[in-house]
Amino acid sequence: MMPTRHTLNFPDFQLSYLEWNRGKEPLLLLHGLGDHGLVWSSLGEYLSDRYHIIAPDLRGHGYSSKPVKGYTTSDVLRDLEGLFEHLNWRSAHVLAHSWSAKIAPIWARSHPERFNSMILVDPIFITKMPSIMKLSFPILYRTLACLKMMGPFPSYQAAQVQAQQLDQYSGWTPLQQQVFQEGIEEKPNGEWGSKFTIAARDGIFEDVLRVDGLTEPLSTPTLFIQPEQGVNRAEWQMKPYKTYLKNLTLHRIAGNHWPFLATAETFNAIVADFLTGVSTKKSGD
């Protein structure tokens, strides 16, 4: 099933989102830094007969508005609350990857009633960062795989060559090619680069420096998907999740930081099994 694209108009902002809506139970899919909603196309198709699925392009990404400022966690959560109101959703299963998997627990802390369950896919920057780490941002901007497609590139072909060297496109499957093509655009000067903006990048990094993602216990049923080659490999990295997530299921999976692109079939089955278990348990309460 192909998703349909919609635009939600706020007074000063437009939020673009994809929808698979054959199923009834709400499922919200949140992409990571530098990505867009179409990264969930395989999962969306796989689950579309069971769930009403929404995958937004978060602010500064994809087809959504790209303001010069306004990239705090509070700004993103305001967008998501507006999306829930627009959809007439009271609650949903929420799946989040990487940067947005830091935002999801903050949202669950402030609005636990919104969450039927939570799935965190290899979160990043979950704790508050020391201010001195800001000095390393220029290095991170150059080295993080999620930012290497920002460009500029002299041509589409040059951008594609770069993409084929990155973990998220390892294998260069039709799914990965589609995600690459959706995330890049020709700039007014004829160069090519990501639809993700520098203003969004800088604003998000400023925010993750200041905000702690887990500060108190959460009882939301939570699945943590931990790729073998992901960013959460050490026990000290896992400690905040094991400490604060009181209804936690940990599932290790082969592959890298983007298992929904690199090992999509396995990833989809893991997510489906968890969601089925949560729904079954809830109906039996």
UniProtKB/TrEMBL annotation:
One of its GO terms (molecular function) is hydrolase activity. The keyword Hydrolase applies. Residues 26-180 form the AB hydrolase-1 domain. SUPFAM superfamilies: alpha/beta-Hydrolases. Keywords: Hydrolase. It comes from the Bacteria. This is Alpha/beta hydrolase. It comes from Laspinema palackyanum D2a.
